[in-house]
Amino acid sequence: DAGVTQSPTHLIKTRGQQVTLRCSPKSGHDTVSWYQQALGQGPQFIFQYYEEEERQRGNFPDRFSGHQFPNYSSELNVNALLLGDSALYLCASSLAYSNQPQHFGDGTRLSIL
Amino acid sequence: DAKTTQPNSMESNEEEPVHLPCNHSTISGTDYIHWYRQLPSQGPEYVIHGLTSNVNNRMASLAIAEDRKSSTLILHRATLRDAAVYYCILRAYSWGKLQFGAGTQVVVTP
C-alpha cells in the first residue's frame, strides 16, 4: 500500500519563475493538505483541498495556489518565486470527517537562486 | 488557535524511557492532542493522539492531565531511531489543519 508520494524530490528555480509540485495521496484518502517548512522551523499550513475545492487556507499570499483532481491527487503552484520561498514543501493526506491522522510525504525541496 | 509549549531539546540514553512534556493551557473542549515526529530528511510521522483519556499504541503512550492543560508523550525504551523532532499539536476538529510549533529535539545517546 503506497503512502503519500511527492514529485519532484528536489527542484531549483530562479526568482520570478513559477513552479508546480505534485502529490498523490495515500490510498483511501480524499483530503490533501500542503505545508511549507523553512530550514530549522516546524511546517506551516498553506491550504487544504477536499472535493476539488480549497477548504482551509493558512496565512500565505495568492501567489500560492492549488488544485485537486478527481482522483484526489493535488498540485501546489507558486508564482513569481521569491528567495524566501526556498523551503521543503510537504503534502499530507487524510480521510475527511474521520479521526484518523494525516499521513505525510517526504516533501519537495525547493531552492530559489 | 490554541498553542502549545514544549522544551527545545531533551537528551536520553538508549533503552531508557523518555518523557516529553507539552503545555496547552488554552486548549478548548473539542481540541484533540496530536503528536508527530520528524526524522532527518523525512516528512512528519504520526505518533499518537487523544482527547481526554490516556492512550497507548505500539510507538508510545500519551498521558493527558485531568484538566487537559498539559500532556506527556512517553517513549518507553528509547532507541537511536527515536532521535527526531517531536511536535505536540492541538487539532481543532478531527480532520482540521495541523499547526506545528518548533517542537522538541530528542537526542538519544548510546
Series of H and E elements of chain A: EEEEEEEEEEE
Name the shape of chain A in a single word: globular
* Proportion of residues in β-strands of chain B: over 45%
Strand line-up in the sheet with most strands of chain B? 1-9-8-3-4
**Mean pLDDT value of chain A:** 95
- State the helix count of chain A: 0
Query: Overall pLDDT of chain B, averaged?
Result: 93
Q: Strand-residue fraction of chain A?
A: over 45%
Give the strand tally of chain B.
9
Structural class of chain B, by secondary structure, is mainly beta
Overall helicity of chain B: under 10%
Fraction of residues of chain A in helices? under 10%
Secondary-structure element order of chain B, N to C: EEEEEEEEE
How many helical stretches of chain B? Answer: 0
**Protein chain pair with the most extensive contact, residues per chain:** A-B, 27 and 22 residues
Measured distance between first and last alpha carbons of chain A? 37 Å
- For the termini of chain B, the CA-CA separation is 39 Å
Describe the structure.
- The complex is a heterodimer of chains A (113) and B (110).
- Chain A has 113 residues and is an all-beta fold.
- Helices cover 0% and strands 50% of the residues of chain A.
- Chain A is built from no helices and 11 strands.
- Chain A has strands at 5-7, 10-13, 19-24, 31-37, 44-50, 53-57, 64-68, 74-78, 87-94, 103-104, 108-112.
- The radius of gyration of chain A is 13 Å and the shape is globular.
- Chain B is built from no helices and 9 strands.
- With 110 residues, chain B is mostly beta strands.
- Chain B has strands spanning 9-13, 18-23, 32-38, 45-50, 55-56, 61-64, 70-75, 84-91, 104-109.
